[in-house]
Amino acid sequence: MAQKLKVLMVIADQFRADLLDGELADHVDLPNIRAFQKEAVTFNNHFSVTNPCGPSRASIFTGLYAMNHRSVRNGTPMAHDTPNIAREMRKSGYEPRLYGYSDTSRDPRHHHADDPILNTEEQVLPGFVEALEMRLMESYPWRAHLKAQGYELPPYPRFFDSISPDAGRGARPDDPPFYRAEHSDTAFLTTTLLDDLAVRTDQNWFAVATYIRPHPPLSAPAPYNKMYDPATLPLPVRLASRAAEAQVHPFMQGALEAPSMQAMVRGCQVDHDQDADVQALRAVYLGLASEVDAHFGRIISFLEKTGQYDDTLIIFMADHGELLGEHHMWGKQNPYDGAYQVPLVIRDPHAVAGHGGVVNALSESVDITPTILDMVGGDIPAGMDGVSLRPFFEGQVPQTWRDAVHLELDFSEPDKLTPWQKATGTGTRKSNLAIWREERWKLVHFNGGLAPLLFDLQTDPKELCNLAGKPEHAATLLRLTQKLLSHRMCHADQTLTGYKITLDGAKYFDQT
Fold first, then answer.
1. Annotated catalytic, 490?
2. Which of 22, 371, 374, 473 is deepest in the core (most CB within 10 A)?
3. What is the DSSP string of 47-99?
4. Which pLDDT score, from 0 to 100, does residue 199 have?
C-alpha cells in the first residue's frame, strides 16, 4: 500500500446537494457534516451519473456509466465479471466490509435458477463481506434488534407507518413510527458499524456504511419528526400547476405520476394539491437528514477517540438526489438537477493544506472508485469512465479536467409499461435519456424520436423554461448534441480495447 490508510465511505440515500449548499441549507441543521467540511474538501458541483438506487450504486462501485455497466434499473442484473471497488480493494490487501446495502442484482447466468440469491434485487456486490444486512426490503438484523428491545413488531411493510398518538384523529406525516430514535434503522446501523470497527483499530480496514435515510418512506422518530416547522420552509420551485408541468414534455406526465406524493408516506393520507401537506413532507425529509447528520457525528467522534481519524480517508456522499416537490414531482426518476446533484465531501488525512477547501469543478459519481484506488496505491482497471479526484485534495486542478457531466436515465421496465413509457409511447430499448450538463447549458436528449429539452442554467437555474424549440438556440442545441454524442463514443466500453494480441502475448497500451 502507498501509505497507512483506512477507508470509510458513508453514503446517504436520496440526500439533496442543496442541504449543504443551496436554498434548503439555511433551513436544516447539519452541524456534524458542516464541521467535517472544515476539515475536508467539498465538491460543490458533484453529480450522480444515473438513478435510481441500484443503477446509481452500480456506477459508484464500478466507476462506469450506466451505458457500460448496463444495470440500468432496480432489479436489472450486473454482469458477474464487471470490475468493482470491492474486488479491486482486495488486490490492495483490504477486506471490503459493507454495512447496509449495495442494491446489486446478480447475474442469473452465474447462478442456478433456484438459488435464493436471485430472489431479491437487493443483493450484495461481489467482493463485499455483508457485515450488516440492512436492505430496505428485508433488514432482518434490525428487526431482530427491535424485537430484542421488547417492541411488538407490526408486519414489515408497516414498519414505517406514521402512528397517531391521538386515537381521535388520523395519522399525519409528522407522526412518528412505532420505534424510538435510539432504535431506528439509522441508529442501529451506526452502532453496529462502530462496534465492529472498535476491534479493528490495528487494521487498514475498508468500510462502506450506507444509510437508507432520508430515502422514503418519510417517517421519522421523535424528535426528528417535528424538528422543522413546515411553515418556515420555502415552497418547492415549480410552475403554476401540475398541468403546466405536464405540458413541458410528454415525459413529464409520467414523472408527475411516478412516484406520487402519496407514495412517499405510509399510514397517512396526503394531497399534492395542498401546500400544507407538501411542506409537511419536506419538513420530515429534513428531519431524517438531520438524523443522518447526528449519527455521522457519532462516527467522526469514534474515529477521533480511537486515534483513527488521521489515518482514515473519509468520504461522505449520496447515491442520488430527490425532487422533494420541485416541478410538482417527487423521487428521482426525472431529468432535473435535483435528482442528480448530490453532496460529496472527502477528507484525505494526509493533505492537510487542502482541508476546508471547496472545489467548483464538475465531478461525477464514477470518480469515486478511481479516487479510492488511487489513494491506496491500487491499479485502476481499464475501461473505467471515472477519473481520480486526488489532485483536488492537494489544491491542483488537472489541465484537461471535464467541462461537463454526462448523466443518464432508463425509465422502462421489461415486464410492464411504466408511467413514463405510457406517457411517451416508447418501447423498452427506447425509454431512456442522456444529459449533457455544462456550467451554463443543459441538454436532455430523449431516445424514441422525442423532442429534447434545453435549459440556460445561468438565467434559469431552476429549469423552468425549455429553450429547445427556440430558433435562436438551435446552434447551442446542435453543439451540445454533438458533444454528447462524441462523449458517448469516447466512453463506449473500453475494457479490452487497449489490449493487442502479439507474438509476445497480450500487451496493454494506455488509451487517451
1. no
2. 371
3. E-SS-SHHHHHHHHHH---HHHH---STTPPPPTT---HHHHHHTTT--EEEE
4. 98
Q: Are 7 and 347 in contact (CB under 8 A)?
A: no
For 504, the grid coordinates are: 509476445
Tell the CATH topology of 6-248+262-402: Alkaline Phosphatase, subunit A (3.40.720)
Per-residue pLDDT averaged across 122-127, rounded? 97
Distance CA 178, CA 425 (A): 43
Report pLDDT for 510: 79
Mean pLDDT calculated for residue range 222-229: 98
Please state, in angstroms and rounded to a whole number, the distance separating the CA atoms of residues 147 and 503.
65
Q: Per-domain residue ranges for the chain? A: 6-248+262-402
The number of residues making up the chain comes to 512
* pLDDT for res 509: 87
Q: What's the CA gap between 437 and 407, in Å, rounded? A: 8
Residue 146, all three cell numbers:
427491535
Q: Which grid cell is 407?
A: 448523466
Q: Helices 53-62 and 368-375, interaxial angle, to 10°?
A: 30
* Grid cell of 165 as nine digits: 398518538
- H helix or E strand, kind and range, residue 345: strand 344-347
